[in-house]
Amino acid sequence: MALNATELNAGIASETLTRVLVVDESKMQRKLVIALLKKWGFEIFEADSGKSALEICSRQSIDLVISDWVMPEMSGLDFCEKFRALPRERYGYFILLTSKSEKDDIAKGLDVGADDFLSKPVNSTELRSRIQAGRRVLDMEKQVHAQNAKTTAALAELQRVYEELNKDLLEAEKLQRSLIPESYSQHANVEISNIFKSSGHVGGDLVGHFNIDQDRMGIYSLDVSGHGVSSALLTIRLAGYLSPFNKEQNIAFYKSNSDEFLVKDPAEIARHLNELMLRDMSTELYFTLAYADVNLRTGECAMVQAGHPHPLIFNAHHGITLLGTGGPPIGMIDGMIYETFQHHLVPNDKLLLHSDGLTECEDPDGALLDEDGLSKILMRNAQSNGPELLNDILWDLADHAQGENFGDDVSAIMLEFARDKK
User: Fold this and answer.
1) Three-class secondary structure of residue 283 per DSSP
2) The pTM is what?
3) pLDDT value, residue 100
4) What is the DSSP string of 318-382?
5) Which pLDDT value is given to residue 10?
6) Of 50, 129, 345, 367, which has the fewest CB atoms closer than 10 Å, so is most exposed?
C-alpha cells in the first residue's frame, strides 16, 4: 500500500537512529537524499568520498550510513569494510546505493558488512522503508545491549557476593577445623589420632574426644545429613554439646545430689541428643553417631551406634572386628530407643570410628569402597600406627577414587590401646 504525503513526511528519527551519514561523490545525489532525511528529523552528515567519510566516523557516533557503491579511490565496499573495523560501542546500520542487481554483487556486499541495498535513483518510499528496517535492527540491538549491561551488572554483583561468601566460608572452615582436636595426642595407656577432610569449605562431619575422669575417655564420630553451611552449623552446635572443656555444657554428664559430675550411659547420651534435636532445633537435618566410653586402664568399652558405620576394632595379629548392630539416626523420630553394647580392648587394639565418607567413597565407575575395601586397606597397612595409618588410609582412598576430590566428607578418629612401643 502506498504511503500518502503526510505519512511520508512524518518524522522517523528515533532514540536509536538519529545521526545519518550520506556518502556519494555526486553532490546532486547527496542533496536529494539529504532533503528527504531532513524532513524525517535526522541529524545529517555528508561526505564526498570514503576517506572523508571515515574521518567523520572516527569523530562522530553514526547510527546509519547511506553510501554509494561506485566511488573513486575507495569504493563503497571498501568503505563498508573499514567502517565495520572501526571500534564502536553500538552497531551502525549500513545501506549501499547501487545500480547493481547481480546475485554475486549482492553477496559480496553482504560479505563485507552491508545490511541492506537501495537502487538508484533513490525512491523516497523505498528509502523510508529501508530506514525503518534499520531502525528495527538498531532497536533490537539497543535492547540486547541494555540486557547485556544488566547481565554484566548482575554478574558483577554475583561475583562480589561470591567473594564475600567465599571469604565467610574460609572463616567458617577455620572455625570448624578449630573444633577438631589435634591430629595426634597421647594419654594414659592410649594414643588418639584423627583425620578430617571436608568435600567443600565446610562439612557435616565431626570427630572428637573428652576426658570423663582420670581413667576414662569418651570418643565420638558423627555425620550430619547433607553438605555445606547448614550441616556445618549443626556440627558446631553439636561440638558444644560434647565439649571437652566444660562438663556443665557437655550433655554426657549430669550432676549427682552431691554436685559430683557423673557420666551417662552411651545409649542415654544418644537418646538425650535425639530429644534435643527434635525439641530445640527447627531443622530437617539429622545425624548419625558412634560413641565409645573407654576405660584407658582396663580396656573396657561401652558404645552406642546410631545409624553410623560400625565401630571397627583392628589388630595386626587378630584381624578386624565390626561392632554394633546399626541403630536409628538421631533427630528423625521422637522416642527412639538406643542400645549400649560392650567390648573389651586388648593390647595393640585400634578402635576406629569413621564416617561413611570412607566406606561409601566411589571409584570412577561408581563402585563403593564398602567395609570389605576398608578392611583390605587396613590389613595392607597393618604395620602403620597413629597418624601414619590414617594418612595411609587417605592415600589408598584417593587411589580408589582416582583423585583427592571425594564426593563426601571423610573423617575418622582412632584410639590405640596399650600399643607396644618399638
Assistant:
1) coil
2) 0.66
3) 67
4) TEEEE-----PPBSSSTT-----EEEE--TT-EEEEE-HHHHT-B-TT--B-HHHHHHHHHHHTT
5) 58
6) 367
Q: Which residue in 230, 212, 378 sits closest to 296, CA to CA?
A: 212
- H/E segment holding residue 32: helix 27-39
β-pair partners for 320? 314
Cell numbers found for residue 193? 589420632
The H or E element that residue 312 is part of is strand 312-315
Q: Candidates 3.60.40.10, 3.40.50.300, 3.40.1010.10, 1.10.10.10; correct CATH number of 180-417?
A: 3.60.40.10
Q: Where are the domains of the chain?
A: 16-147, 180-417
Q: Which CATH superfamily is domain 16-147 in?
A: Response regulator (3.40.50.2300)
What distance in Å separates the CA atoms of residue 114 and residue 332, rounded to the nearest whole number? 69
- Tens digits of residue pLDDT in 329-381: 999 999 999 999 999 999 999 999 999 999 999 999 999 999 999 999 999 99
Q: In a 10 Å sphere around its CB, with 0-12 CB exposed, 13-18 middle and 19+ buried, how is residue 32 labelled?
A: middle
Stretch 385-402: mean pLDDT, rounded? 94
Give me the mean pLDDT over the 158-182 stretch.
Answer: 79
CA torsion angle 63 67 73 79 (round to 10): 40
